[in-house]
Amino acid sequence: MTETFQFKLLATDGAARRGEVSMPRGTVRTPAFMPVGTVGTVKAMYLDQVRDLGADIILGNTYHLMLRPGAERVARLGGLHELIRWPWPILTDSGGFQVMSLSGLRKLDEKGVTFKSHVDGALHHMSPERSIEIQGLLDSDIQMQLDECVALPASPDEIERAMELSLRWAERCKTAFGDQPGKAMFGIVQGGDVARLRERSAQALAGLDLKGYAIGGLAVGEPQAVMLDMIATTVPHLPADRPRYLMGVGTPDDILKSVARGIDMFDCVMPTRSGRHGLAFTRRGRINLRNARHAEDMRPLDEESSCPAARDYSRAYLHHLVRANESLGGMLLTWNNLSYYQDLMAGIRKAIEEGRFADFAAETQETWARGDLAPL
């Protein structure tokens, strides 16, 4: 641990990077996957379990937490770490994406965005300064700038307008954040699927000399090839000595291919949401436990896994739980999925350290392709 926020690059293998993000509440081993704890809970999991699986950091959502229980209330209760019993690092997003995607009414201008809560219809105003204030009340360790995320496809003019607004908001967020020892504010690269706009955004943000940089506005429905092209376009314009965070990504395959292009940090609801809907991620690829072929299959999801959900419960039982809509089914599959994601990240880190990341990625993808019926 350290009293300051630091990023240390430990090894590289091609563009893939192995590093550590250190801060007073702990060290995050990168490449890292951050489980999403939207409203102060990683759905269907005890946070002790999440930690035991290997998570160094989790994500909280500013939009949801400001609506309930409220940022000021969280602060009065000792901050988010104290409230949820997670003493390790927390990253909070700015709330901007949820404002754009969830609110029933919104009006955006230079000052910020006014929106109607999806919970009770109350009107709220989110400015760059208010977003940083809320994240400070939550007491998160990494705070994100407020940005405007444009849904794709969109016109180049609309993408450029939102990108330039996000840059101006980044400057205001930096001023509002000030100097907070041991904490960091990350800027967010925007620019949609337009390469020149991604380059312009990354270069301008790099000029702000922030402690970390995120790539936003991807994994919003565009083809994977477009996402990877935008990552490859953006990364060369970001400082090599700062962490790089790809927001909202993604599938295990997305992660492998993004690490190969220099990304250090990821978050996504996919492992938890998929678990609640009967889908398991394993070394053998995806397994849909709703399928009837699992009804009498007494094999576990993965007999070699260190996770009891994957190793000790039969597919037949998991299938029964899912089909019966029992809560335990979602709990066990979420446990399995988060375990697989953390095991994947540990394997990636080890492979980079050993200079064999390309081989590791190829072997992993080959095992997925063979499927869950093929012997390992």
Automatic annotation (TrEMBL):
Active site positions, chain numbering: D93, D267
Keyword tRNA processing appears in the UniProt entry: yes
Highest taxon, organism lineage: Bacteria
Binding site for substrate: D93, S94, G95, G96, F97, D147, Q190, G217
Keywords: Glycosyltransferase, Queuosine biosynthesis, Transferase, tRNA processing
Any one GO MF annotation of this record: glycosyltransferase activity
Region of interest (RNA binding), residue spans: 248-254, 272-276
Top EC group: transferase
Signal peptide positions on this chain: none
Domain tRNA-guanine(15) transglycosylase-like positions: 15-368
Enzyme Commission number: 2.4.2.29
Keyword tRNA-binding: no
Pathway: tRNA modification; tRNA-queuosine biosynthesis
Catalytic reactions on record: 7-aminomethyl-7-carbaguanine + guanosine(34) in tRNA = 7-aminomethyl-7-carbaguanosine(34) in tRNA + guanine
UniProt-listed Pfam families: TGT
Alphabetized HAMAP family for the sequence: Q_tRNA_Tgt
Function: Catalyzes the base-exchange of a guanine (G) residue with the queuine precursor 7-aminomethyl-7-deazaguanine (PreQ1) at position 34 (anticodon wobble position) in tRNAs with GU(N) anticodons (tRNA-Asp, -Asn, -His and -Tyr). Catalysis occurs through a double-displacement mechanism. The nucleophile active site attacks the C1' of nucleotide 34 to detach the guanine base from the RNA, forming a covalent enzyme-RNA intermediate. The proton acceptor active site deprotonates the incoming PreQ1, allowing a nucleophilic attack on the C1' of the ribose to form the product.
Family designation: Belongs to the queuine tRNA-ribosyltransferase family.
Subunit structure: Homodimer. Within each dimer, one monomer is responsible for RNA recognition and catalysis, while the other monomer binds to the replacement base PreQ1.
Protein name from the UniProt record: Queuine tRNA-ribosyltransferase
